[in-house]
Design brief:
The complex is a heterodimer. Chain A has a domain of about 150 residues. Chain A is built from 3 helices and 9 strands, in the order ααβββββββαββ. In chain A, the strands form 2 sheets. In chain A, strands 5-4-3-2-1-9-8 form a 7-stranded mixed sheet, sandwiched between helices. Chain A has a two-stranded parallel sheet with strand order 6-7. In chain A, a hairpin with a 2-residue loop joins strand 2 and strand 3. In chain A, helix 1 crosses helix 2. Chain B is built from 10 helices and 2 strands. A two-stranded antiparallel ribbon of chain B has the order 1-2. In chain B, helix 8 crosses helix 10. The chains are: A alpha+beta, B mainly alpha. At the A-B interface, helix 1 of A face helix 4 of B.
């Protein structure tokens, strides 16, 4: 029997059956692989946080082990802030997450702050779709991120870290050819750290911050900080 | 080998590797050749992904070719390609996360790679599954080698490394050697593709004249 493959009914039934089969197949695969994908995303985030402590290029197992042993996430419900606390060779570091906009898409980063809450230990920035070799260099440690080490968290002016052309008096040199991405990092740092400044987070050193309520033994602590 | 594959099958496989190469002769799939050739590793993974998807899509379409309604055949081809691409993307995310981050949107854009639709419409719709499979494999590998050559040059001159390992010694950098930033830009990939096309044409013309 020769099928009439040009009839309307045949065409509509064919399209419907095909779409249902494909949809089922994709749904099953997506559900089956979801846990693995989520685990990968989580591990990738952990590695980015470790990179802000200058623990770069760790392999997966080492990164996971170090993270589990030395880093915990802390949230403060009252002032809607969250940060990470790390134990790096016995010294305490704070890691603040920031997000912002680059030239083509989102950029984000983790700022590791020394125990005194005044100076930057190191930073890690990442991007979604900045131009490789130009704006994409914010991801590069030796070209860009290294400059932030030891700088005051809020910049020498107190307004935030200023990223300017070399010799123009900024805290950090911008990447030549990538002014918009560099400025994006600058405003990301200013707007990202503003809530911490407002909440007085930088003024409270460790013992004073000790009004904590541990909600959950499982790594996450909940603290209150002064509302101003 | 000669008896393993019929002449037609062998032509389907060997043609796209050289004389009928999809990138350098038919100028298809150039967009991704520009985008993912900054590093050799990404280029090869992209090549493998395209090869697998063209070969499988060719087989599926070829097996269905007598049942596909003529009026919606392009849509059917597109659905098959889109489903396969989504599968490959999900598998990469689950098992090769770093690579999937590096290739970001380009895996999804395989759907729009002209090589796929071109092979489905031109070959799979009128040939058997086995020949179509070999045709897909040949086109995928033909695409891969061009990407690999471009990525080799770009990574070597642009980053001084191959597969991420530094090959240009520190001594050269200390004596003033600088990586060529132009190589990181997509425009250089187009120029390199042009050079490959030039060399390829020159070689093949010579063979024709013999």
């Amino acid at each position: 029997m020769k099928l009439n493959t040009n009839g309307n009914v045949y065409t509509i039934v064919y399209a419907s059956v095909m779409v249902i089969i494909v949809a089922l197949l994709l749904a099953v695969v997506s559900a089956a692989l979801k846990p693995r994908q989520d685990a990968n995303v989580k591990l990738d985030t952990q590695k980015q946080i470790l990179a802000s402590l200058n623990l770069r290029d760790l392999d997966n197992a080492a990164a996971e082990k170090f993270y589990d042993e030395n880093i915990k996430e802390v949230t403060c419900d009252k002032c809607q802030l969250s940060w990470f606390e790390a134990n790096l060779n016995g010294e305490k570091k704070y890691i603040l997450p920031v997000r912002g906009a680059g030239l083509w898409g989102p950029i984000w980063g983790y700022i590791a702050v020394n125990n005194d809450k005044q100076t930057i230990y190191s930073v890690f920035f990442n991007h979604d779709s900045e131009t490789p070799g130009l704006g994409g260099e914010i991801k590069n440690y030796s070209v860009f991120q290294q400059q932030f080490e030891g700088k005051p968290v809020l910049g020498t002016s107190g307004k935030g870290i200023l990223i300017e052309k070399a010799g123009n008096g900024g805290d950090v040199d911008c990447i030549s050819g990538a002014t918009i991405t560099s400025k994006g990092v600058e405003s990301m740092l200013i707007s990202g750290l503003a809530p911490y400044v407002e909440a007085g987070w930088f003024d409270q050193l460790e013992p004073a911050l000790d009004m904590k309520t541990v909600i959950n033994e499982n790594e996450v602590e909940n603290r209150e900080c002064d509302e101003k | 080998m000669a008896k393993l594959l019929s002449d037609k099958t062998r032509e389907a496989f060997m043609g796209p590797l050289n004389a009928n190469n999809p990138v350098v002769v038919q100028i298809l799939g150039i967009c991704s050749a520009l985008a993912v050739t900054v590093q050799l590793k990404n280029a090869l993974v992209m090549g493998v992904a395209v090869t697998v998807i063209v070969a499988l899509a060719n087989v599926v379409i070829s097996a269905l070719r007598n049942t596909i309604p003529g009026r919606i055949r392009i849509i059917v081809q597109l659905v098959v390609v889109a489903a396969l691409v989504t599968l490959v993307s999900a598998i990469l995310k689950a098992f090769l996360y770093d690579v999937s981050v590096a290739l970001s949107v380009y895996i999804g854009l395989i759907i729009t790679n002209c090589i796929l639709m071109g092979r489905l419409e031109a070959y799979a719709m009128s040939n058997g599954p086995w020949d179509s499979f070999m045709d897909g494999l040949g086109n995928g590998l033909g695409y891969t080698w061009v990407l690999a050559v471009i990525a080799f040059v770009r990574e070597l001159l642009g980053s001084g490394s191959i597969f991420g390992f530094q090959v240009i010694p520190d001594w050269c950098y200390e004596h003033g050697y600088v990586n060529n930033g132009m190589m990181m830009m997509p425009a250089m990939a187009l120029i390199l593709a042009g050079c490959i096309i030039w060399a390829h044409r020159a070689l093949n013309d010579k063979e024709d004249k013999k």
